[in-house]
Amino acid sequence: MLLAPSIQPFFPPQRTLMGPGPSDVYPQVLAAQAKPTIGHLDPLFVGMMDELKSLIKYAYQTTNAMTLAVSAPGSAGMETCFVNLVEPGEKVIVCRNGVFGDRMRQNVERMGAIAVVVDNEWGEAVDVDALESALKAHPDAKFVAFVHAETSTGALSDAKALCTLAKRHDCLTIVDAVTSLGGVELRVDDWGIDAVYAGSQKCLSCVPGLSPVSFSPAAVEKLKSRKTPVQSWFLDQSLVMGYWSGEGKRSYHHTAPVNALYALHESLRLLAEEGLEAAWQRHQDQHWALRQGLEELGLKFVVPEEVRLPQLNTVLIPEGVDDAQVRQRLLQEYNLEIGAGLGAFAGKAWRIGLMGYGAKRENVSLCLKALADVLN
Amino acid sequence: MLLAPSIQPFFPPQRTLMGPGPSDVYPQVLAAQAKPTIGHLDPLFVGMMDELKSLIKYAYQTTNAMTLAVSAPGSAGMETCFVNLVEPGEKVIVCRNGVFGDRMRQNVERMGAIAVVVDNEWGEAVDVDALESALKAHPDAKFVAFVHAETSTGALSDAKALCTLAKRHDCLTIVDAVTSLGGVELRVDDWGIDAVYAGSQKCLSCVPGLSPVSFSPAAVEKLKSRKTPVQSWFLDQSLVMGYWSGEGKRSYHHTAPVNALYALHESLRLLAEEGLEAAWQRHQDQHWALRQGLEELGLKFVVPEEVRLPQLNTVLIPEGVDDAQVRQRLLQEYNLEIGAGLGAFAGKAWRIGLMGYGAKRENVSLCLKALADVLN
């Protein structure tokens, strides 16, 4: 026998999470998650899942029947959208202005479809005109995919304009709302989004690990008309939907992450209680307060003002400042986490999150004072 | 705006879970899960993941470096093994003696590989001789896949013999240990298992949603020599391993399900504290007590005695007894969940689980008394 390792219980400290996610989790959500596990086919659990569906619909502002939470993180939500809707050989125009647009390209290529990449500079919004040129140059494209709120840069793209344009060229749209859901305006039905996915750990302030997704009737139509099976059994939406269906004929697919779904239910319930528009405004208000303080510290934003995400503030690291040391001191001396730069911004920028429960005055104040202390 | 649904907090009852999983969760595990969320790149979290890796290795009795927890349920663990190791066009011998063997076949076929199915009756163990005939008939097969403990039937297969045979024919082995891990003897290194996956929600008595997996050096070799990219970005083990690597150069892949991993850490820690052999024995002891009581009630086991799983007891529903009504009464009157039959056994059998924390005397007694009351 290999011997048992001797390991003590893990006691994480209480941090203030102001990175790009996970964000500070609502105490009510942590408590919800610790409630007794019940069976995933228990009638009471099925009822909870039905409520959860209606809460996800509200957060997305959609009436889409095919709305549920993928039992895995946001990147599995992304993959769910691509592998269900796109078939090998089909063409997808992928707008890329950061890490997550590039992840979309990798998804498309790995599944044997064709990615046409429309590039924008890091920190910019996706350029609507550049997309239009690509759509004209590729009349056989069937999909347009883009990131609504780029977590790697903090830039917000005009999802409504991009979707309107895609529709005009008969393309379905696949939209990454991982960082936008709950933090800025997002209207899936009004804007004509066909497939959307998000993450539980950003502006919903739920624990990480789940991905709410929603497919429009047109997306469902495309799914139903596939000529090839979906390559992934685990992510096959037709099977998963049979499990989430509220029509009394629930069919077993996998075992739902019961306690994590309790947590998502509670976080979305809190969002519904506050109201979406109030939550969007709160993020904006706290962003203004943080912005003013950061500028007083002499820090410069990476993203142009008009497309800046309130929930993710990317600022340039001042000349001569040691990136890792600052973040380490914030963590060790203040229990405060801010995010490092990712990809092209590694070592060059910090990402300061104001997400969900964390978009509040005390977090802004702590961050500003701690940064002021550490930078001086 | 679509209006916010008015939904109350969800308060699940305290059930006793004696189905095929999720099983009763250790109170310490629920408490661990509710600890404060910290960043997934926080040095303290990275340290916790390193401990978790060593705990998974112990539970599997392996020294495999490529050992980690997939951030999704057991069926994603299954898919991880197939999509990383098998390439399109390669041949996999799939032993099928229940629902989960068939799920393996579906995985193989969806990814464009060739499944050769070796069938056994439901309730039987996988037949070693039948596998040998298949191996002789298909000398070009590169993999043998089977389920160690079939959750749909309660039958245990001889993993050691099957793996020895597969090795002799130069095949790598992919083994489903979803229901076996922690409940019956399982020795990944000694038995020559090349890829193995499990679920958090069975004999580990953790919350559902995670899948510990381990790849042998030979499996890693196969992975490295692939000619085609892994079809799934989310499940690509080379990328995921970069995230789990303890060598200080941790690279971002996805956001780990932080709190769920706290839970897995605690459940595996409790297993290590008890000791694997003691846990196996406890499952066996409680099985004997349950078995005696069920037989006194006149219930008959589906699976032959010599291959019966202690942690999952499948009994035939007596003639004239209303399946759904019995399970409903147990749930409503006793807060006790037992499992329905699945697939070929739907409506014909019950599956009574004694898994992990649930493999204890009070559960056996409750189940026997409640069944006696309801059946009379």
TrEMBL record, chains A, B:
Record domain Aminotransferase class V: where: 38-341
Domain of life, source organism: Bacteria
CDD domains: AGAT_like
PROSITE patterns: AA_TRANSFER_CLASS_5
Cofactor: pyridoxal 5'-phosphate
Family assignment from sequence similarity: Belongs to the class-V pyridoxal-phosphate-dependent aminotransferase family.
The protein's name in its UniProt record: Alanine--glyoxylate aminotransferase family protein
Source organism phylogeny: Bacteria, Pseudomonadati, Pseudomonadota, Gammaproteobacteria, Alteromonadales
